[in-house]
Specification:
Elements (H helix, E strand, L loop, with lengths): L2 E7 L4 H8 L5 E7 L1 H9 L5 H16 L5 E4 L2 H7 L8 E3 L1 H9 L5 E5 L5 H14 L6 E5 L4 H5 L3 H14 L4 E4 L5 H11 L3 E2 L1 H12 L7
Helix pairs in contact: 4-6, 5-6, 5-10, 8-9
């Protein structure tokens, strides 16, 4: 029997990544998208963190009530805002398998972002996760400036070119990309340079297959 997974995204561009990544498994995906929430967080000073937290919890509860077997949250900001929420189905946070992979690395590493507004929440969660695993990380954070607006305005190809160009210039350390929107660029650079770039999509699929006991299509 197919597992029904409700996927909560902050932008439509994330849908294809999840669809392709899980296409080999017996799953039925339903996508719920609200790009307006993060736009409001970034532009409306009267919209407080508490308002944003309440909205994310409301969204997750809506997805749960749609009758899914699990909820997948792909937005790092949503995950940071949500905190802990008790539900009757598993809530899969895309960044946790990614954090686990980073905690396995002993040498200095660089994490790349395009959205500066996701950095603090993601890094706070990463440090909390590392402490829970009794790990000390040597991490440099870099933001690829002036690129996130491209993906938010639908300029996916231009966005990918900018991220690819940046990745090709920064290959002196262990590198990972923190956002799902950066995965395509990371995979392109891996293919063209043979450089390994950790991304949250690969780690997510491995974890989901194990956690939800997903079956491969025959």
């Amino acid at each position: 029997m197919k597992k029904r997974i409700g996927c909560l995204h902050a932008h439509y561009s994330n849908i294809d990544y999840i669809e392709i990544a899980l296409s080999a498994y017996e799953v039925e995906l339903s996508h719920f998208v609200d790009p307006g929430l993060m736009v409001r967080v970034m532009t409306d000073p009267k919209f407080t963190d508490s308002d944003a937290q309440s909205k994310v919890k409301e969204q997750v509860e809506w997805v749960v009530r749609s009758g899914v077997d699990a909820v997948l949250i792909t937005c790092t900001n949503y995950i940071a805002l949500l905190g802990e929420l008790s539900t009757n189905v598993p809530i899969i946070k895309m960044d946790e398998p990614y954090f686990e992979a980073l905690c396995q690395i002993d040498q200095p590493q660089t994490i790349l972002f395009t959205n500066p507004d996701t950095v603090q929440g993601t890094m706070n969660r990463l440090q909390q996760y590392a402490r829970s695993k009794q790990k000390t990380l040597n991490i440099e954070v870099q933001v690829i400036e002036n690129t996130f607006a491209l993906i938010m305005s639908g300029k996916k190809d231009e966005y990918q070119r900018e991220v690819v160009n940046f990745l090709k210039k920064n290959h002196h350390r262990v590198v990972s990309v923190a956002q799902l929107s950066m995965v395509g660029a990371a995979k392109q650079v891996e293919h063209e340079t043979s450089q390994t770039i950790i991304n949250p999509l690969n780690t997510l699929v491995t974890s989901m297959v194990k956690q939800l006991n997903l079956k491969a299509k025959e």
